[in-house]
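User: Structure please.
Assistant: Input sequence and predicted structure:
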Amino acid sequence: MPAALALFMALCPASPASAAPRVAVLSPENRSPDPRYDYIAGIVQGIFLYDLSSSGLVELVDRAAIDALLRERELSLSAIAAAPTGVFTGIASADWIVVGEYVLLGTELRLTLKLIEVSSSRVATFSDTGSTENLVHGLAEGVIERLTGKRPVLRDDSRNRSILSLRDETPGSISLFSPLIDAQVILDGTFAGYTTGDRRKPFVIEGVEPGIHEISTDLGRDFGVVKMPEVKFGPWKELVRVQSGKRAIVTDLSSHFNDQLYRLRRVFQKSPAVAFDSSGRYGYEYAFSFTDREGVERRGRLAIELGAPTGDEGRGSGTLACSFEGEARSESFAYSLGNAAELAVTIGLATFSAEVENSYGRVSVDLEVERTDVEQGMHRAGY
């Protein structure tokens, strides 16, 4: 057995990575008698969504289905918080729902958030009083810690603007740089215009109120971003913080789904230089890993050994050895002048390919590993 092949060892399957909790955040209710403070709900929700998103510890889900359910059942947020049992029956998109309410106490705000577990209707309450953004950041720290066991640091002195006065601050603007041509631009759920089609020329939205806003683009079913690791498809969207009198710069990460799938499918591609040793042997090996659609890290290794070509016909031989998640296979092959050797071996979620060619006085090798759970066009096939 060649020495390089003897190095192969069985690889233990990895354990699934813990899935991030899926959270839907509903707009809090104004419990003050004055409707002039309704605008605070949008500010609080925007800051809270921004904190959850930027933490990288939770997954935010589209709350449209949940909003529709509440309207259908004519339920208020306060009623849900008081008696959540059975309210969210039939909702499978979220593991947790955040509802809340606030009341004005003089110059301060009393903000209460309730974290409801959909499966059990258990409720955890977070409440505090304040007047600045740090009131929301502090509650967000507690919610994230309850969900993940990790407490981020979100409060700091630079975030001490008054929530109550944000509405009166000078508007800002958003400059969106996008590679898409004539894609719809959506700001906070409302159509705002079309992308310019020039990645160097931004689409500018003026007169944006200070605070957190959601911006997204839509160019149909073939363009957007691929969510990893499960490989799901959707339009690009991002939460952006707009400061008073300033311009926020945002870059659209959208591209054609097939371009992204092509890159995801190819785990690696190598064309190593072939140099035979004094005994006429050449060897190359490469270890790789990728995270599959279930969030499990998969590991493998590829190795190739060649014998130098001999004779007028330039004949040579070699062996391709492949190992993936504890299963190993090897294939022997021959090559000669004008007759390349082409091999393909599939083990589980990995396809190993090799091409060996003897031409123009040299031997060349092309190696590739591709995933079998990702393919171009799958965004149109209902995955």
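The CA atoms of residues 70 and 76 lie 7 Å apart.
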